[in-house]
């Protein structure tokens, strides 16, 4: 993409207002191309737009732009967030005011290119493209998380892996388990004191979730929210609005499967007595 729009609505079934372009690629000094899926947060009366793009070396980074109103205009910081990489930023502000940024996407999102060497995350360009670990005992790649500074502009803590465990709560999800392993589209929300981490499985097109007791994890796999939908990537968010909970996502039904022509959809979700998520009919 070359720009971002902001849309708003007063009710789930009401009309949608397009507030126009709020940020363009040319407004982001550090970015060379490919604005991808952003996320937004609000804190202390300001609004923050977290955006991934390729830097001038072709590496995906994550930056932030700031506005006084949710409909912008947004002003981008001069540089990307130090230590950031990959795609699909998802911001989360906890009840105590601490904020976190979750991110990561494999294949085109370059997450598989990053590994630790002497305590530092380093980029290996030879791993670009549709690559990921494989093998019966190989552990899947995990998304990343870091706490944000109070001003929401930088990382307060080092970037770390967000571990996703099997339903037994002991064994990490394996790389060959494409129906449950993390691919992209991380999202965090909180319900009844429990942290819910949801994500896309990518090539199997599920939206699944895991739960934990800390925003840093570890998280235990719980199940699916959405069965496969038409087209990539099913990128979603889960929010409370009007006293009810909703999952927003996209598919390619209107374009009859053309993957880059996506339409936004929304479904109501609920929670049973065990905290499991279900779709409301």
TrEMBL record:
Keywords: Glycosidase, Hydrolase, Signal
Entry's Gene Ontology molecular function annotations: hydrolase activity, hydrolyzing O-glycosyl compounds
Family matches, as InterPro entries: Glyco_hydro_43, Glyco_hydro_beta-prop_sf, Glycosyl_Hydrlase_43_Enz
GO biological process, one term: carbohydrate metabolic process
Site (Important for catalytic activity, responsible for pKa modulation of the active site Glu and correct orientation of both the proton donor and substrate): 88
UniProt xrefs under Gene3D superfamilies: Glycosyl hydrolase domain, family 43 (2.115.10.20)
Keyword Protein biosynthesis: no
Pfam families referenced in this protein's UniProt entry, alphabetically: Glyco_hydro_43
Signal peptide span: none
SUPFAM superfamilies in alphabetical order: Arabinanase/levansucrase/invertase
Family recorded in the similarity comment: Belongs to the glycosyl hydrolase 43 family.
PANTHER family linked: BETA-1,4-XYLOSIDASE (EUROFUNG) (PTHR43772:SF5), ENDO-1,4-BETA-XYLANASE (PTHR43772)
Protein name: Glycosyl hydrolase
């Amino acid at each position: 993409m070359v720009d971002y729009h902001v849309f708003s609505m007063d009710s789930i079934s009401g009309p949608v207002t397009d507030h126009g372009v709020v940020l363009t690629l040319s407004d982001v000094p550090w970015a060379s191309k490919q604005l991808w899926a952003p996320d937004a947060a609000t804190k202390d009366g300001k609004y923050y737009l977290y955006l991934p793009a390729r830097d001038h070396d072709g590496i995906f980074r994550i930056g932030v732009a700031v506005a006084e109103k949710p409909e912008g205009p947004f002003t981008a910081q001069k540089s990307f967030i130090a230590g950031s990489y990959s795609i699909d930023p998802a911001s989360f502000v906890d009840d105590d005011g601490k904020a976190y940024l979750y991110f990561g996407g494999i294949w085109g999102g370059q997450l598989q290119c990053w590994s630790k060497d002497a305590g530092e995350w380093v980029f290996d360009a030879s791993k670009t493209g549709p690559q990921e670990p494989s093998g019966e005992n190989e552990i899947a790649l995990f998304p990343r998380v870091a706490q944000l500074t109070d001003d929401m502009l930088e990382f307060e803590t080092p970037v770390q892996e967000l571990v996703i465990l099997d339903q037994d709560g002991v064994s990490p999800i394996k790389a060959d388990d494409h129906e449950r392993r993390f691919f992209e589209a991380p999202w965090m929300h909180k319900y009844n004191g429990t942290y819910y981490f949801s994500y896309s499985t990518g090539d199997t097109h599920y939206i699944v979730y895991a739960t934990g007791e800390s925003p840093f994890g570890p998280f235990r796999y719980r199940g699916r929210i959405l069965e496969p939908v038409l087209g990539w990537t099913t990128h979603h968010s889960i929010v409370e609005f009007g006293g009810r909970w909703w999952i927003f996502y996209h598919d390619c039904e209107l374009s009859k499967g053309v993957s880059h022509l996506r339409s936004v959809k929304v479904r109501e979700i609920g929670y049973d007595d065990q905290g499991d998520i279900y779709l409301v009919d």
